[in-house]
């Protein structure tokens, strides 16, 4: 079996690894040993798993591989942000963004090759959908960048809608938070969604990670024009669901709000947003729009953003203006669009 056709082991849960070792008649405890090699010692080859017998390593290597692969390219911003491009086995490409900031080192990772949600303002959505990433392809972004060992936080805010690839995302969250995996606190992880309610409920029930919801307008028709997801999952229904969960203590709910000049940046929108978010204990991140080709929207100026922020804060809604990072390398919010290699040939 060629290396490219072997099954990656990164991204597997402990229970899945137990099935792998049982397949070859290996002792059950071998699964925990393999998990430690994959997620704590972070090996790149099965032969490095030296507390497994040579015979068992050879058996594993007939069908499986670790599955790690390095980024195929990188771009560095003047502000220290680094955008990495990973090429998948089917010649698609996805991007991840490393964001250093004083005591924090955050990696923004992708969950899909492109996106099917079709948000008007997002380059990823405009490139179309080319498939889900596997758990191995998602976790590889975390494991295989040069800064991997120093990461303090991971955010699922890259290419794709995490709730549209929920099983793989959940598997990765287990790898990152369970004792046999990275053993990270869920407080180090934020998962973003535009409000795909069926799987968002599962995320809320089955994990304790932070949640970020993309709102961008408190009005149904206006949001529908920007985000087709508003039709099956109206934002008012999403917020109603979120009110049922506790975000007043360890877990945090963030609201993402991109601001456009003359569209959603006046006091009327600010008050409607206050009303929408009542009872959620949420924090609002106000985001500058980063211009992308073919989209006739303009970002709000700094003074208007500050006035909008101040209005929310006076009304008891904690709001901050998110600092823009990596715009010069198309790594800022809404600008990721990993190139599809097939179209370049």
Task: Please describe the structure with a list of short key phrases separated by commas or semicolons.
single chain, 345 residues, alpha/beta, 10-stranded mixed sheet, 14 strands, 19% strand
What would your notes on this structure say?
This protein is of the alpha/beta class. Helices cover 30% and strands 19% of the residues. Helix 10 crosses helix 11.
Strand content: 15-25%
Number of strands: 14
Structural class by helix and strand composition: alpha/beta
Count of discrete alpha- or pi-helical segments spanning 4 or more residues: 11
Strand ordering within the main sheet: 3-4-5-6-9-10-11-12-13-14
Question: Separation of termini?
Answer: 28 Å
SSE map:
Blueprint: E1 7-8, H1 14-23, H2 30-40, H3 54-63, E2 64-65, E3 73-76, E4 82-87, E5 93-101, E6 104-108, E7 112-114, H4 123-126, E8 129-132, H5 135-143, E9 153-156, H6 166-177, E10 189-193, H7 197-206, E11 210-214, H8 220-226, H9 235-242, E12 253-259, H10 267-277, E13 282-288, H11 302-314, E14 318-321
Parallel strand pairs: 1-2, 6-9, 9-10, 10-11, 11-12, 12-13, 13-14
Antiparallel strand pairs: 3-4, 4-5, 5-6, 7-8
Quick rundown:
This protein has 345 residues and is α/β, with parallel strands linked by helices.
């Amino acid at each position: 079996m060629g290396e490219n056709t072997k099954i990656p082991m990164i991204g597997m849960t402990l229970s899945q690894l137990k099935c792998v070792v049982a397949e070859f008649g290996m002792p059950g405890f071998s699964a925990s040993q393999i998990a430690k090699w994959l997620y704590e010692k972070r090996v790149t080859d099965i032969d490095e798993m030296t507390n497994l017998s040579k015979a068992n390593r050879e058996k594993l290597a007939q069908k499986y591989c670790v599955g790690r692969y390095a980024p195929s390219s990188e771009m560095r911003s003047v502000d220290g942000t680094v955008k990495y491009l990973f090429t998948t086995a089917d010649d698609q490409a996805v991007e991840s963004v490393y964001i250093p900031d004083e005591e924090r080192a955050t990696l923004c990772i992708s969950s899909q090759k492109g996106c099917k949600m079709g948000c008007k303002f997002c380059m990823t959505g405009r490139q179309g959908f080319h498939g889900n990433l596997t758990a191995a392809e998602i976790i590889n972004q975390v494991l295989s960048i040069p800064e991997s060992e120093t990461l303090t936080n991971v955010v699922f805010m890259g290419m794709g809608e995490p709730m549209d690839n929920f099983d793989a995302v959940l598997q990765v969250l287990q790898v990152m938070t369970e004792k046999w995996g990275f053993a990270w606190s869920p407080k180090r992880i934020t998962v973003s969604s535009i409000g795909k309610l069926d799987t968002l409920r599962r995320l809320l029930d089955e994990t304790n990670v932070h949640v970020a919801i993309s709102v961008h307008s408190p009005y149904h028709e206006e949001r529908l024009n920007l985000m087709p997801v508003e039709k099956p999952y109206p934002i008012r229904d999403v917020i109603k669901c979120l009110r049922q969960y506790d975000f007043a203590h360890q877990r945090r709910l963030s609201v993402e709000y991109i601001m456009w000049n003359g569209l959603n940046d006046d006091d009327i929108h600010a008050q409607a947003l206050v009303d929408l978010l009542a009872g959620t204990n949420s924090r609002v991140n106000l985001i500058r729009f980063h211009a992308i080709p073919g989209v006739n929207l303009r970002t709000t100026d700094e003074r208007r953003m500050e006035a909008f922020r101040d209005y929310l804060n006076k009304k008891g809604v904690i709001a901050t203006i998110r600092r823009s990072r990596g715009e010069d390398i198309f790594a800022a919010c809404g600008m990721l669009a990993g190139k599809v290699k097939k179209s370049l040939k």
